[in-house]
Amino acid sequence: xxxxxxxxxxxxxxxxxxxxxxxxxxxxxxxxxxxxxxxxxxxxxxxxxxxxxxxxxxxxxxxxxxxxxxxxxxxxxxxxxxxxxxxxxxxxxxxxxxxxxxxxxxxxxxxxxxxxxxxxxxxxxxxxxxxxxxxxxxxxxxxxxxxxxxxxxxxxxxxxxxxxxxxxxxxxxxxxxxxxxxxxxxxxxxxxxxxxxxxxxxxxxxxxxxxxxxxxxxxxxxxxxxxxxxxxxxxxxxxxxxxxxxxxxxxxxxxxxxxxxxxxxxxxxxxxxxx
Length: 275
Hints:
275 residues; alpha+beta; 3 domains; 4-stranded antiparallel β-sheet; 9 helices
């Protein structure tokens, strides 16, 4: 029996979902319609393609523990050409921290708790118990392989497997982008000021910031309505300054609105009020 096929059957019997890889760590198309991935699937991508035969049949979505599938006619030719066996880490409740070079390994030794390790051609796989979102290049030479990706099977490794630490989960958490300054027209009207003290205006801006920050749905609409309310109350007497507008834009951008969207909402609100 082909050594890679034997390895795949052994892994499948232990509950590890497997699939064959051809040269270059690329998955096979495992049915006639998917030969050379003509159906649109791309290797190791989160969307394996439109093929339904009866399910996506390649990349991570092909990984299986079924001996009938592993030894079925669709896969037997693939095992004869396979360069490696791959598995779906997330499918067996694992996360692989893929360290590509010596500097990445040194970083892991300083930063991450010890766990089971598997040597690769240039680096190491550190394997933890637990799953998370996969991501490439979370730092120099470090990829995260867990859900919706595959990893090469390079052996059981050595050491005691430990639980997935928060330090690994934190690698995919992006810092929120800082609010970018946007030049927008500030009303310069000369109408009568109704604000008895500066605190009245400041309180109004603070309430507007809070309304945007607390939005849980329809952020676009909330931002526009809030801008409209601020301009309706404070836009005709010339009291609003760039600092006030900047606070409103910062609150909107913290909720995910882009600078262009903020500027458009502000301009539309001014136009509606004739400012």
